[in-house]
Each structure stands twice: as C-alpha cells, then as structure tokens.
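Good day; I would like, with your permission, to put a structural problem before you. What I wish to show you is a protein chain and, alongside it, a tokenised description of its three-dimensional fold. Here, with my thanks, is the record as I have it:
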Amino acid sequence: MADRRIITVTRDAEIYHVVNITECSDAESIHRRIFSQLQIPLVSQPHFEIYRTELGGVAIGNALDSNRFLNICQELGDGIGSLKFIVQDTRRSSNTPITLATFDSLQNDFWAQDNLSDSTGSPLHRTDMSGDEAMLFQPGSHNPTLIAPGVELGNTLKETRSPNALLGGQINSKMDSQTGIKWARGSLIGRSMYSRVYHALNISTGEIMAVKQVDLPQSDRDREDSKQAFIVQALKNECSVLRRLTHPNIIRFLGSERTLDTLSMFLEYIPGDHLGKLLKDTGKLEDKTVRFITRQIVDGLAYLHVSGVIHCNLKCSNVLVSDFGLCRIFGFSVSEQKENTHEDYRGIRMQGSIYWMAPEMIHDENQFYDPKVDIWSLGCTTTEMQTAQRPWLGENAITVLYKVGVDKEAPPISDTISLTSLGLDFRRQCFRADPAQRSTAAELLHHPWLANSDSPGRTFRGFKAMCDPPGSLEKSPHDSKKDTSFNMTIAQSNTSCLAMPHRPNVSDGQDFIPHSNPSVEIRSTMSSAEIIRHLVSHGCKDQTMDLDLSSCSEYPISSGGSGDVYRGKLKIGHNIAIKCMRFVDLSSDENKIRKDLKYAAREIYTWSRLSHPNVLRLLGLVEYRGQIGMLSLWMDRGAIRDYLAQNTSADRLKLCAQITDGLSYLHEHGVVHGDLKGDNVLISDAGEPLLTDFGNAVLQEQTLRFTYTTDQLNLSLRWAAPELFDESGSHSVWADIFALGMTILEVITGNVPYAELKDVAVTLAIMQHRLPKRPERQIPTRSKYGNFIWLLLNCCWNPDPNKRPTAVQILQHLRLVQQRDLVSY
C-alpha cells in the first residue's frame, strides 16, 4: 500500500463523477469531456448548465459561461487537487439555483428582522473564500443558504443592508439616470438572437423584476448590422412607450439603464407564463375563461388607445397571465404612439405578426392605419384561445397575406368549435373589413358577450391548476421527479480518462460522396451521433478536432432565416465561418431539436456534393456549441451588395454571368438551390462570386435520403416565384430561374428587387404578376443591349414556369453582353 492517498469525505448521498481534464486546453474541450463521461447526448447538451458547488447539491450562483468556467478550471494549474461542479438539466430540475423562492426566503427570513451584520457572532456570518466568490452560512446548518459569486461582501452589506444584493451573480451599481435602480441580475428566463431576459432584484426595494437586455454595437461591423440596430431601436421604442403607461392590464415599466455594453429595460415580474405557452399546456379554453381574459385585454387596449398608443402586435404570446388569471399586455417593441391616434398614420412601416395582421396594414407606404388594427388582432387572439391554435393554421404566410390583404378574409374557425350567438357577434365586430365599421375597444367593453366576465366562476382554480395533471396537487413525497442533476469532480492527474467516440475523417481529396455507399435514410428520431456517422461515411469531413476553439466568436457575426454564422480559425491558421442551426427557444422540446439537426444534416450532405469555382466550398462539419456546424472559409469581402457598394466600378454583368454559371452547375448535378439572392452570394478575395446557403436546397439523386417533414416553405419574399405562393408550391429549377432574374437585377442596381415597396406589398405585386420597375439608370432604353437584358429578365419572370429559360441559356446570352453595352447614348 502506498504511503499517501487522497480521499474525499462527504456526508451527502450524491454520486460524484471524476472527470480528468489533463489534456484539455480550452472550455469547449472540457465541456466535451464532461458530457461524454456523463453520457449526455449532443441533442440534449444545450439544456445542461454547469454550476460551482462546494457541498452536496448546493449550487453557487449562476450557470458558468465558457470563459468563467475555464478560468476556474485553470486554478488547477499545478496539476494537484480537484474542483466540484454541478451539471444540471434545466428542463426538468426543480432545484434551479437562483429562483423566486430564493428571493422570497431571503426577504422573509433574513431581512425582515434587519439582523445581518459582518461580525462572526451574528445570526448570519460569512466565510471567506479565495477568489471572487463567497458563501453565507446559517449557524447550525450543514449547507450554505445563499452563495453569491462576483460580489464584494463587505461593501455590499454596508451599502445596501440587504442580503438580496448577493443574488444573481452581478451587482450593477450604475444608477439609471431616470430611476436610480441598483440591481442584481438573476437567472436567465429566455433569449432570442439579440436579446436576453433575466430574473432581477431591485436591491433598494427588494422588488423582483424582469430585465430585458440587448447588446450595444461595439465595433464598426456591429454598427453596420442593420438587424442589431433595429433590435436596439425597438427596445428604446418599447421603453419610450411603456414609460408613460399605468394600467392593471399593461405590464408595469420600472426603468431603464444604458451602459457601455448593454441597454436594459426593467419590468415587473409576473409569476406565470405568456398565454400562448399556457394554451399549449392546457388546450382550448372554455367560453367563460375566454371572456374573462378577453375582458382584461380589451380593458388594456381601451386604455392604450385613449393614451395615444397602438400596440400593433397583439397576440396570445404577448399577453402575460399569472397563475390565477391576471393578464398583462406586453411586447411593445413595434408599437406606435401619436398625440391623436385617430389621425392619419401616413408613412408608418408595416410591422407585427402576419397571422394576426389587419388588412389595412398590408398596403403601400402611402396608406395609413389607426387603433382598429389592434381590434382585428384582438379577434385573432380570441380565436387562439377558443382553438388553442394560431390563426390560419395550415396556411403559409404568403397565402395569408393575400387572403387578408386582398380578399379581406378573417381567419376561419373550425366547425367543431361551438360559439354562442353573442360570441359570434363579438367576432364579427372585430373582423369587419372596413376599419371605420370595426368597433373600438371602448365599445367592445360594453359588448354583451363580455357582460358578467369579471370572473370565470368559482370553479376556476387558475392556470397552474389547469396545467397540473389530475391528482398532482397532492403528491406523495415518494412521487417526486427523478433528480436530473449530476455532481461532478474535475481533477488533473496522469490517469487515463474517457474521451468522445472517435469519428474517422475522410481523405482530403474526397470532394464527392461515393455513390457506392448503400442507401441510408436520415430520420429526425436519429441521435446526432448517428447522423454524424452517416454523414462522415458518405464523404463529409469531420473537422471538429481541427478547430481552434479559443479563436471562435462567442456571438453570431451574422444571421439568416434559421441559422447563425460564427467566425473562427482552424489550428493551421485559416479564418473560417461556422454556420449552425439557431436554437433560441429555451423550451424547445427534443423532437424539435432533432428535426433541426436533420435539417442541418441535409444541408451538409447537399453542400458536400458540390465543387465549382462559383460555389462556396464546404470544408467539413464540426460539433460546435452543442450543435452540428458547417465549416467554410471566411470571406472578408462579404455578400455581393456590400461588395458592390465598396467597388462601384465592378463589372456587374460579368458577376451575373458567374452567378449564373454556378447555378447552371447546381442544376446539371440535380441540385435546386431554393434560396438564391444577393445575401447568399459571397465574394472571394479574388472578386469571384460564390453561391452559398443550401438550407433550402433539394438534391434529386442521393444515396443518403432524408425523411419528409411537413413544414412550411422558407421563402425570401422579394426573390420568390409566384408558384411558391400556392399551397402545393415547392422549390424547383424554374423557381430558381425566377430568383436568378431577381438576383441579376439586384446586382445591376445594387438594391433589392421592388426596393420602393414594403415586404407585404411585394407579395401582392408578385401574385398579381406585376414586375419590378425597369431601372432606367442602370438598364437604359437608349443603350446597345439595354432592351436585350431587360427582355432576358422578363423571360426569367414569366408567370408560366415552363416558359422560363434554363440557366445554361441565360449564361449563353449574358456572355454576349459587356458592361459598356449598357452605357446610355
């Protein structure tokens, strides 16, 4: 027996997993090692978070981000010792480290008696730790009652006299210029591509809040990102609208704050959920409950309209509902405010959600709308509650735009839904096609359908009760959920450790999937490991181990319809782009994530078959941020419109011919692109256009097959062929030709097609076969080949798909014309 042994002594019943990180040099490799040893599937990894711990199952503060996690792990620099962490499934665990229960227990148990002090003999005292973390212990307890990273305890206790200041991991001492809020940030509630919502605590008052944050532009590239600028402006608009509103059915605005990095908006926190989520959990609502909620929404709308505010985006997911039915309207980022909401609203850009949109919002720029748009959306919202489905279920957005904007149709309701005569009349009042004939919110408050709707009856137990399964309100202690968290010890030693299963790479020279491989079908029920294995066996190169994770961007550099692009480097030094499917919904179920994985796999497979000078090359696939990513070289010159803006003398007709050559190659090899437009044409260092983004691509002959999924078409509106608007429409070679014509026009003019029209007006123009206006400046009538080029584009836009030319024919014609042939004479 050796003279020396290292042991861990514990009184808790946790199972500890030792994870060796000797060969791990960055946070991503440590994460992979942890998830591999704990046998957590790739598809589930985004739902797991890692927390610091000292004793048992008590977590310290917030989940650790990659940088903080790596810094803590580097405390083991001398190769001796271990650290303890908790790996926790945030979907099912009831022991979230920072919760409302934590806030409440602090307020009720500790601060009520004002008995907190710094001395060791006090009812509460602190135990110092190395680094920037500390724990508060309650005498006689084996576990810390509160642990708070990132807080200087002495200063915090003296300044605030409240233990609430220790929550959330981040104390923000910067005072808001208008509200003077000093606050602590708690756990993440939700996120989107550009914004995040957290629990928060007002340290001065002890009030629980929700804080919505967006990142402010930090670089020149950020400032040029129109999407990020729009999100920042939308949050500013929301603050401006909410600042002057006070009503029981409107979310309460508490303040705002701007730092060098972020813009934050503070709102009251409503325990519960938005109405859309509750409908998903409970199903359709009874008539008395619909009336109870509708009455509150109408009350809030009436107040908004009198206050000069049009919501513009009313729907169930923008109505918060407490567990016992108290409603608050929120989501004011696209709202409009005027001194007189009944005056002409000329020049307001169409915004909102298509399926809830009123007909008058679907018009050209010189039209206007008034508060009656909210009444139409109210009718859609009541339909949601009555059916537990969004309006126009089964119809794609393009069809809905036509039916509402042109035919003035209201969303249908199933014959299986029984409405009272008063309920039907309320619906008619909301859906009158002429806004002047539509009832106001003030008038609807007195509609007989809403009479006696102050309460849904004594039997109503609230949404929490409705969401609980039968018998769940009185559970035995033995019926509690299985614990889904793991305790884990990370150690450095010379012993061997488990690693991720090895996936062999294919040879560098293998550009096409070998047809000799047996046919395999990819299903959404497959695990990510199975999907990757099949992709690799069919010629896709796995370059996960070649990725320099330390150089990869934390946030997306750019974003498309369903994917985010990150910038990074390979270990050999090449700058690369990593495209990943976007998972923004924290509540996404595993089936949805598996479908997204299948879509990513289909794009990788299609892209990997392609090799042409005008098609961006796929380098391989990677596992990145818990997802399957697509790797390609980074193109510094960006997309073609950005390039043309910086290179005004570029030969645009030559670029058009090269784009057409790339598309011709795709069609010759049985590939339909499905989303051709300027944003999907990148420019190489040599100034050559490269087609990219094959998320909508269709590969006609394939040895690796993908099961059919009944999802709606993804369309880029301004480039979409009219046949795609039909219910039976599908991506095709001929739809690609229509989009090619629009892309050629885009390259020649440097602007998007139908640049003078709003998106919705473009839909009507295409469906009515109204072509873009001829750009006389760039394609002059009085030029050598101006009429020839314009005729060629018109052939691409023929309403009969079968009469459109092929890509080969278009290429032949384009090669006959030079840029100087479009000079006016």
In short: The longest helix spans residues 287-306. The longest strand covers residues 183-191. The chain has a mean pLDDT of 73.
